[in-house]
Amino acid sequence: MMLFTAERTPSGTSYLATGQGQPVVLIHGVGLNKEMWGGQIVGLASHYRVIAYDMLGHGASPRPEPDTGLLGYAEQLRELLDHLQLPQACIIGFSMGGLVARAFALRYPQRLQALVVLNSVFNRNPEQSAGVIERTRQVAQYGPNANAEAALSRWFSREYQAANPAQIAALRQTLASNDPQGYLTTYELFATQDMYLADELGSIRAPTLIATGELDPGSTPQMARELAARIPGAQVAVLAEQRHMMPVESPRLVNQVLLDFLQRLQTSQHPTQGIVA
Protein backbone atom coordinates (compact mmCIF):
# COMPACT_ATOMS: atom_id res chain seq x y z
CA MET A 1 0.00 0.00 0.00
CA MET A 2 1.27 3.47 -0.89
CA LEU A 3 1.71 5.63 2.20
CA PHE A 4 1.98 9.41 2.32
CA THR A 5 0.82 12.24 4.52
CA ALA A 6 -0.51 15.67 3.66
CA GLU A 7 1.86 18.54 4.41
CA ARG A 8 1.69 22.33 4.17
CA THR A 9 3.76 25.09 2.64
CA PRO A 10 4.58 28.20 4.73
CA SER A 11 1.56 29.99 3.23
CA GLY A 12 -0.75 27.11 4.13
CA THR A 13 -1.15 25.19 0.86
CA SER A 14 -2.01 21.58 1.65
CA TYR A 15 -0.23 19.04 -0.53
CA LEU A 16 0.89 15.44 -0.67
CA ALA A 17 3.92 14.00 -2.43
CA THR A 18 5.04 10.48 -3.18
CA GLY A 19 7.34 8.61 -5.57
CA GLN A 20 10.71 9.52 -6.98
CA GLY A 21 12.03 10.94 -10.23
CA GLN A 22 11.00 13.89 -12.34
CA PRO A 23 8.33 15.96 -10.54
CA VAL A 24 4.75 15.93 -11.80
CA VAL A 25 2.27 18.33 -10.15
CA LEU A 26 -1.49 17.66 -10.31
CA ILE A 27 -4.06 20.50 -10.07
CA HIS A 28 -7.69 19.53 -9.46
CA GLY A 29 -10.90 21.14 -10.73
CA VAL A 30 -13.28 23.62 -9.11
CA GLY A 31 -15.16 22.24 -6.12
CA LEU A 32 -12.84 19.23 -5.80
CA ASN A 33 -9.53 18.70 -4.01
CA LYS A 34 -6.28 16.77 -4.24
CA GLU A 35 -8.07 13.52 -3.37
CA MET A 36 -9.53 13.34 -6.90
CA TRP A 37 -6.11 12.26 -8.18
CA GLY A 38 -5.94 8.90 -6.37
CA GLY A 39 -5.90 6.89 -9.59
CA GLN A 40 -3.18 9.04 -11.14
CA ILE A 41 -1.04 9.01 -7.99
CA VAL A 42 -1.08 5.22 -7.96
CA GLY A 43 -0.41 5.01 -11.69
CA LEU A 44 2.37 7.58 -11.94
CA ALA A 45 4.25 7.33 -8.64
CA SER A 46 6.30 4.31 -9.68
CA HIS A 47 7.82 6.46 -12.44
CA TYR A 48 7.73 10.04 -11.15
CA ARG A 49 7.65 12.19 -8.05
CA VAL A 50 3.94 13.01 -7.90
CA ILE A 51 2.66 16.07 -6.04
CA ALA A 52 -1.03 16.91 -5.64
CA TYR A 53 -2.28 19.98 -3.82
CA ASP A 54 -5.46 21.80 -2.84
CA MET A 55 -6.13 24.99 -4.79
CA LEU A 56 -6.95 28.16 -2.93
CA GLY A 57 -10.43 27.94 -1.44
CA HIS A 58 -10.49 24.14 -1.61
CA GLY A 59 -9.68 21.24 0.66
CA ALA A 60 -7.31 22.21 3.47
CA SER A 61 -5.72 25.19 1.70
CA PRO A 62 -6.52 28.81 2.63
CA ARG A 63 -9.29 30.59 0.78
CA PRO A 64 -8.45 33.36 -1.69
CA GLU A 65 -9.36 36.98 -1.33
CA PRO A 66 -12.55 37.76 -3.31
CA ASP A 67 -10.59 39.73 -5.93
CA THR A 68 -7.95 37.04 -6.51
CA GLY A 69 -7.32 36.40 -10.20
CA LEU A 70 -5.77 33.47 -12.02
CA LEU A 71 -2.34 34.92 -11.36
CA GLY A 72 -2.94 34.44 -7.62
CA TYR A 73 -3.58 30.75 -8.23
CA ALA A 74 -0.43 30.54 -10.34
CA GLU A 75 1.48 32.19 -7.49
CA GLN A 76 0.22 29.48 -5.15
CA LEU A 77 1.77 26.87 -7.43
CA ARG A 78 5.03 28.81 -7.65
CA GLU A 79 5.23 28.96 -3.84
CA LEU A 80 4.67 25.19 -3.67
CA LEU A 81 7.53 24.53 -6.10
CA ASP A 82 9.77 26.90 -4.16
CA HIS A 83 8.91 25.13 -0.90
CA LEU A 84 9.76 21.75 -2.44
CA GLN A 85 12.95 23.23 -3.98
CA LEU A 86 11.89 22.20 -7.47
CA PRO A 87 13.29 24.43 -10.22
CA GLN A 88 11.00 22.82 -12.80
CA ALA A 89 8.06 20.42 -12.99
CA CYS A 90 5.56 18.94 -15.39
CA ILE A 91 2.24 20.61 -14.58
CA ILE A 92 -1.00 18.68 -15.14
CA GLY A 93 -4.19 20.68 -14.68
CA PHE A 94 -7.73 19.32 -14.82
CA SER A 95 -10.69 21.59 -15.71
CA MET A 96 -10.21 24.75 -13.59
CA GLY A 97 -6.75 23.37 -12.86
CA GLY A 98 -6.06 23.60 -16.57
CA LEU A 99 -6.67 27.36 -16.44
CA VAL A 100 -4.25 27.61 -13.52
CA ALA A 101 -1.69 25.55 -15.42
CA ARG A 102 -2.03 27.86 -18.43
CA ALA A 103 -1.58 30.94 -16.25
CA PHE A 104 1.47 29.39 -14.61
CA ALA A 105 2.97 28.48 -18.00
CA LEU A 106 2.66 32.09 -19.15
CA ARG A 107 3.88 33.67 -15.90
CA TYR A 108 6.70 31.24 -15.07
CA PRO A 109 7.85 29.61 -18.33
CA GLN A 110 11.29 28.87 -16.87
CA ARG A 111 9.65 26.66 -14.20
CA LEU A 112 7.70 24.56 -16.71
CA GLN A 113 9.15 21.28 -17.91
CA ALA A 114 5.97 20.19 -19.66
CA LEU A 115 2.29 21.14 -19.68
CA VAL A 116 -0.78 18.89 -19.69
CA VAL A 117 -4.30 20.35 -19.79
CA LEU A 118 -7.08 17.82 -19.15
CA ASN A 119 -10.79 18.43 -19.76
CA SER A 120 -10.44 22.20 -19.63
CA VAL A 121 -12.22 25.09 -21.31
CA PHE A 122 -11.26 27.40 -24.13
CA ASN A 123 -13.21 29.85 -26.26
CA ARG A 124 -16.72 29.01 -25.09
CA ASN A 125 -19.46 29.86 -27.55
CA PRO A 126 -22.27 32.24 -26.44
CA GLU A 127 -24.56 29.41 -25.35
CA GLN A 128 -21.83 27.73 -23.30
CA SER A 129 -20.87 31.05 -21.71
CA ALA A 130 -24.47 31.84 -20.82
CA GLY A 131 -24.87 28.44 -19.18
CA VAL A 132 -21.80 28.74 -16.96
CA ILE A 133 -22.62 32.34 -16.03
CA GLU A 134 -26.08 31.20 -14.93
CA ARG A 135 -24.48 28.46 -12.82
CA THR A 136 -22.24 31.09 -11.25
CA ARG A 137 -25.31 33.16 -10.35
CA GLN A 138 -26.85 30.11 -8.71
CA VAL A 139 -23.66 29.49 -6.72
CA ALA A 140 -23.65 33.11 -5.54
CA GLN A 141 -27.26 32.81 -4.40
CA TYR A 142 -27.44 29.28 -3.02
CA GLY A 143 -23.85 28.25 -2.27
CA PRO A 144 -21.56 25.43 -3.44
CA ASN A 145 -24.34 22.83 -3.52
CA ALA A 146 -26.45 24.87 -5.95
CA ASN A 147 -25.86 22.74 -9.02
CA ALA A 148 -24.12 19.64 -7.67
CA GLU A 149 -26.59 17.15 -9.15
CA ALA A 150 -26.37 18.66 -12.62
CA ALA A 151 -22.59 18.73 -12.36
CA LEU A 152 -22.35 15.05 -11.44
CA SER A 153 -24.62 14.18 -14.36
CA ARG A 154 -22.32 16.07 -16.73
CA TRP A 155 -19.17 14.67 -15.20
CA PHE A 156 -19.88 10.93 -15.12
CA SER A 157 -21.56 8.35 -17.32
CA ARG A 158 -24.86 6.99 -16.02
CA GLU A 159 -23.30 3.53 -15.81
CA TYR A 160 -20.47 4.75 -13.58
CA GLN A 161 -22.85 6.63 -11.32
CA ALA A 162 -25.01 3.54 -10.91
CA ALA A 163 -22.05 1.25 -10.23
CA ASN A 164 -20.32 3.57 -7.74
CA PRO A 165 -23.00 5.18 -5.55
CA ALA A 166 -20.72 5.56 -2.52
CA GLN A 167 -18.09 7.45 -4.49
CA ILE A 168 -20.72 9.68 -6.10
CA ALA A 169 -22.19 10.40 -2.66
CA ALA A 170 -18.72 11.30 -1.35
CA LEU A 171 -18.16 13.69 -4.25
CA ARG A 172 -21.58 15.23 -3.65
CA GLN A 173 -20.54 15.83 -0.04
CA THR A 174 -17.19 17.29 -1.14
CA LEU A 175 -18.97 19.80 -3.36
CA ALA A 176 -21.46 20.77 -0.66
CA SER A 177 -18.77 21.24 2.00
CA ASN A 178 -16.70 23.78 0.06
CA ASP A 179 -16.09 27.17 1.63
CA PRO A 180 -18.77 29.37 -0.02
CA GLN A 181 -16.56 32.39 -0.68
CA GLY A 182 -13.57 30.35 -1.85
CA TYR A 183 -15.77 28.28 -4.14
CA LEU A 184 -17.50 31.32 -5.62
CA THR A 185 -14.23 33.17 -6.25
CA THR A 186 -12.83 30.15 -8.04
CA TYR A 187 -16.02 29.41 -9.96
CA GLU A 188 -16.22 32.99 -11.23
CA LEU A 189 -12.74 32.61 -12.70
CA PHE A 190 -13.66 29.26 -14.20
CA ALA A 191 -16.73 30.86 -15.76
CA THR A 192 -15.01 33.91 -17.26
CA GLN A 193 -11.32 33.19 -17.93
CA ASP A 194 -11.46 30.62 -20.72
CA MET A 195 -9.70 33.13 -23.01
CA TYR A 196 -7.16 34.25 -20.38
CA LEU A 197 -4.19 35.77 -22.26
CA ALA A 198 -5.15 33.71 -25.30
CA ASP A 199 -3.04 35.86 -27.60
CA GLU A 200 0.07 34.97 -25.55
CA LEU A 201 -0.33 31.21 -25.71
CA GLY A 202 2.00 31.08 -28.70
CA SER A 203 4.86 31.96 -26.35
CA ILE A 204 4.63 28.58 -24.56
CA ARG A 205 7.62 26.51 -25.63
CA ALA A 206 7.38 23.56 -23.24
CA PRO A 207 6.08 20.24 -24.61
CA THR A 208 2.30 20.36 -24.29
CA LEU A 209 -0.57 17.88 -24.35
CA ILE A 210 -4.22 18.95 -24.46
CA ALA A 211 -6.65 16.10 -23.74
CA THR A 212 -10.36 15.70 -23.16
CA GLY A 213 -13.16 13.18 -23.48
CA GLU A 214 -15.17 12.61 -26.62
CA LEU A 215 -18.40 13.08 -24.64
CA ASP A 216 -17.31 15.95 -22.36
CA PRO A 217 -20.07 18.56 -22.85
CA GLY A 218 -18.29 21.46 -21.18
CA SER A 219 -14.69 20.84 -22.23
CA THR A 220 -15.27 19.66 -25.75
CA PRO A 221 -12.90 18.11 -28.29
CA GLN A 222 -13.31 21.29 -30.35
CA MET A 223 -12.06 23.35 -27.39
CA ALA A 224 -9.07 21.04 -27.00
CA ARG A 225 -8.16 21.36 -30.67
CA GLU A 226 -8.55 25.14 -30.67
CA LEU A 227 -6.40 25.49 -27.55
CA ALA A 228 -3.71 23.18 -28.93
CA ALA A 229 -3.64 25.17 -32.17
CA ARG A 230 -2.52 28.23 -30.17
CA ILE A 231 0.47 26.46 -28.57
CA PRO A 232 3.43 25.55 -30.82
CA GLY A 233 3.85 21.80 -31.17
CA ALA A 234 0.99 20.94 -28.83
CA GLN A 235 -0.52 17.47 -29.10
CA VAL A 236 -4.19 16.61 -28.79
CA ALA A 237 -5.74 13.49 -27.27
CA VAL A 238 -9.50 12.87 -27.48
CA LEU A 239 -10.42 9.82 -25.43
CA ALA A 240 -13.27 7.84 -26.96
CA GLU A 241 -16.55 7.61 -25.01
CA GLN A 242 -15.11 9.53 -22.01
CA ARG A 243 -16.89 12.29 -20.11
CA HIS A 244 -15.55 15.12 -17.95
CA MET A 245 -14.30 13.16 -14.95
CA MET A 246 -12.29 10.71 -17.01
CA PRO A 247 -9.30 10.81 -14.59
CA VAL A 248 -11.64 9.34 -11.94
CA GLU A 249 -13.90 7.21 -14.12
CA SER A 250 -11.14 5.74 -16.32
CA PRO A 251 -7.82 6.19 -14.49
CA ARG A 252 -5.94 3.46 -16.35
CA LEU A 253 -6.88 4.93 -19.71
CA VAL A 254 -5.91 8.46 -18.66
CA ASN A 255 -2.70 7.23 -17.01
CA GLN A 256 -1.63 5.50 -20.21
CA VAL A 257 -2.08 8.74 -22.17
CA LEU A 258 -0.10 10.65 -19.53
CA LEU A 259 2.68 8.05 -19.36
CA ASP A 260 2.97 7.90 -23.16
CA PHE A 261 3.37 11.68 -23.26
CA LEU A 262 5.74 11.96 -20.32
CA GLN A 263 7.95 9.10 -21.45
CA ARG A 264 8.26 10.56 -24.94
CA LEU A 265 9.75 13.67 -23.33
CA GLN A 266 12.79 11.61 -22.45
CA THR A 267 13.57 11.09 -26.13
CA SER A 268 12.26 14.32 -27.65
CA GLN A 269 11.90 17.80 -26.25
CA HIS A 270 9.83 18.96 -29.23
CA PRO A 271 6.98 16.55 -29.97
CA THR A 272 5.23 17.13 -33.26
CA GLN A 273 1.72 18.42 -33.39
CA GLY A 274 -0.96 15.84 -34.02
CA ILE A 275 -3.70 13.63 -32.73
CA VAL A 276 -2.68 11.09 -30.11
CA ALA A 277 -5.95 9.21 -29.73
UniProtKB/TrEMBL annotation:
InterPro entries: AB_hydrolase_1 (IPR000073), AB_hydrolase_fold (IPR029058), AB_hydrolase_sf (IPR050266), Epox_hydrolase-like (IPR000639). GO terms for molecular function: hydrolase activity. It comes from the Bacteria. Residues 23-250 form the AB hydrolase-1 domain. Keywords: Hydrolase. It holds the Pfam family Abhydrolase_1. The keyword Amino-acid biosynthesis does not apply. This is Alpha/beta fold hydrolase.
